[in-house]
Amino acid sequence: MEIDPTSYNLPARTKLRAISLNHIGIVKLIKSRLIQKDAIRIIETSKQIKNIEPNINISLICTSNICSKSIKLLQKENISIITEEF
């Protein structure tokens, strides 16, 4: 189920998906590889969501094309990764 990103003060083009109760996924289904700069933006988005709802779990929903530095950075921030093909 899609979630309205404006309720978390995020840009309207940000895609959020409800995974379960108190669990939100940030959707980044792109053809190119996710790099560290993308991971930093995802962390900033997750911090903005946690400012509104501090007890929520956040995951990244993306393709399997993600660099190892990004994976380590996201894991350090407790953001799990869910791979999905489009």
Keywords:
5 strands; five-stranded mixed sheet; 86 residues; 30% helix; alpha/beta; 2 helices; Trna Endonuclease, Chain: A, domain 1
User: Proportion of β residues?
Assistant: 25-35%
The biggest sheet, with number of strands, parallel, antiparallel or mixed sense and barrel status, is: 5 strands, mixed
- DSSP helix fraction: 25-40%
What value does the Rg take, in angstroms? Answer: 12 Å
Please, could you describe this protein's structure?
By secondary structure, the protein is α/β, with parallel strands linked by helices. The protein has one domain (2-83): Trna Endonuclease, Chain: A, domain 1 (3-Layer(aba) Sandwich). It is 30% helix and 28% strand. The protein has helices spanning 36-52, 68-76; strands spanning 2-3, 15-20, 23-28, 57-62, 80-83. A 5-stranded mixed β-sheet has the order 1-2-3-4-5, with helices on one face. The radius of gyration is 12 Å and the shape is globular. The model has no long low-confidence stretch (mean pLDDT 94).
Topology:
Layout: E1 2-3, E2 15-20, E3 23-28, H1 36-52, E4 57-62, H2 68-76, E5 80-83
Parallel strand pairs: 3-4, 4-5
Antiparallel strand pairs: 1-2, 2-3
Helix pairs in contact: 1-2
